[in-house]
Amino acid sequence: MIAGVSARRLTAFAVLALLLVCISTFATLHGIQHLPISTGLKAMIAPLLPIEWRPDVTSSYQAILITLRLPRTLLAIIAGAGLAAAGVAMQGITRNPLVSPYTIGISPAASFGASLAILASGDGGAGSYAPVVIAAFLAALACAFLVLGLSALRGVTGTILVLSGVGLSYLFGALSSTLQFVATEQQLAVIVHWAFGSVNGATWQAVIVTGVILGIVLPVLAAHSWALNAFAAGGDEVASSLGFPVARTRVVVTVAAVLVTAAIVSYAGVIGFVGLVAPHIGRLVVGGDHRVLLPFSALVGALLLLLADLAGRLLFAPVVVPAGIVVAYLGVPIFLHLLLGRARQGA
Q: Distances from the Cα of 175 to the Cαs of 148, 188, 191, 195, 281, in angstroms?
């Protein structure tokens, strides 16, 4: 247990974790076709049991749950947690509450890479899932390392990092707009749909890749929690005086945040709000200690994106609204409610 974790913080963790489990189960069992809880649980555990012990479950139910619903739920949890953790890291390392992983150009770069792959395909973007994912991932990484390279020329500071990212964001945004301008109607529809951001069509490959990267990145960020506390408290001077290698820490944390964000964006498209607002919600509930803030914000992000995807599926069924759109509608009222409540307490 982390020293100094209060009963209120532990209660917040427990409530959030319980909500995540309950809503994950609900999201897996509910959709356009409702499945009874007993049938759903049988379908999920059947593949794990020996053949002679497996319950009798309709194959169509198993296909819906194992192939469609479960990967979608897991990808929403992983994507939300990863974007939120990356947001905490970027805001801490730059001491800027308006920074998110997308501030350094990851989102526009990924959009450019995906748009380029869609235009290069001979089928108007249909059936080009793997090339789009690879192109988006490589473009996002290229942009991130270009930002770090430009920052290194002037010294890797938070301000230079953010300004370099903003400049490249505009560049990649212009490049993406140029590709959309020359795209055919079919290609343009695919590009725009990808840019909305959605976990619709999630696959087990996406879950495994993003899950493994998140599993690597989270311990790296957690190991730098003390350094993030020092950066947030007083910037480079305080961190340096406490013995932290400022430039190396900033590079390691930035690369870790970029890696998980690039992986998520390449599979789920542009979901930009979670990485900005989840860390703020976390600070309002559990405070600014990154040892606690990092895991709590990851839970907030996972729950926020899962709720957004569930609402997008159920509220306008059979039409599915992308989670990248719905997440802002859900997150803004929650954030404003917490923010105004904290302001009244401080008044």
A: 20, 14, 13, 14, 34
The 10 Å Cβ neighbour count of residue 190 is: 22
CA distances from 123 to 120, 135, 190, 191 (A): 9, 16, 11, 13
- Rounded Cα distance between 171 and 155, Å, is 22
User: Residue 17 contacts by C-beta under 8 Å, 6 or more apart in sequence?
Assistant: 299
pLDDT tens digits, one per residue of 213-230: 999 999 999 999 998 998
pLDDT tens, residue by residue, 13-49: 999 999 999 998 888 877 666 666 666 666 666 555 5
